[in-house]
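Quick illustration for those who missed Monday's session on complexes.
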Amino acid sequence: MMNDRQAPIGIFDSGVGGLSVAREIFARLPQENAIYFGDDHRFPYGPRPAEQVQRFALQIGDFLFGLGVKMLVAACNTVSAVALPLLTARFPVPVLGVIEDTVHYAAPLSRRKRVGVLATPSTVASNAYPLAFHAVDPQIEVVQVASQFLVNLVENGNSDKQGALSATLRAIAPFRRAEVDVLILGCTHYPYLKTKMVELLGDLAQIVDPAIAVSLRVEQELLARGISNDIKQGQNIFFTSGDAGRFRTVGQQLEPSVQDVREMRWQE
Ligand code: DGL
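Prediction with D-glutamic acid bound:
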């Protein structure tokens, strides 16, 4: 029987993209056990109405909670934008999203007080990022752009294929025009295009990957609650609601520790 310290951290996303958050958590906290869930069968979340994303998030939370996780990390920005209060109310373990910590980290970085947020249509429609920035500093102007196309590119394992650079350029053009000096990668899939963005933006804007702030927060929460696992090297298990073979192939390009992949099919 696992005690609270050894219990795994549950991390979830609509697909493989959340591995960009998971890899930072694994790197910062290699001794922790983790269970990752990618809802590939119902990917994408980005164009879905908030109520549907909320229902999916609670269902995944139930699944992970049933496996005995000691913390839930909603790596998905779309889930964090529309479902965090519901998740927090439902589960008696700490529930972390990605938006608030990212905003606290990013707000002081913008000298011009003009920040760009690249996110899914659902995250943009929720206004979660602008609201969180304005709570920290009402002077900050937030320029939002939605790109589902780039999300799908990464999810399908095509981030290095021909056309990825020009698609990235199209997506970030409005940020160049608006002269933002900080750009938030407000969807877990985009960090896999970060090299291209750096190439295209140069010194114009600092790019912020939410995974950094979130992994720090996970560490702080575990310590503050006295539930860090300091016993031994952790183990990572990956669940997908889609095809395990596909998840492993695409997932390993993003995070090499994607080995133990299991299928969990929804009964719908
Ligand atoms: N990866 C998710 C996010 O961070 C959403 C991608 C999608 O399913 O459309 O917002």
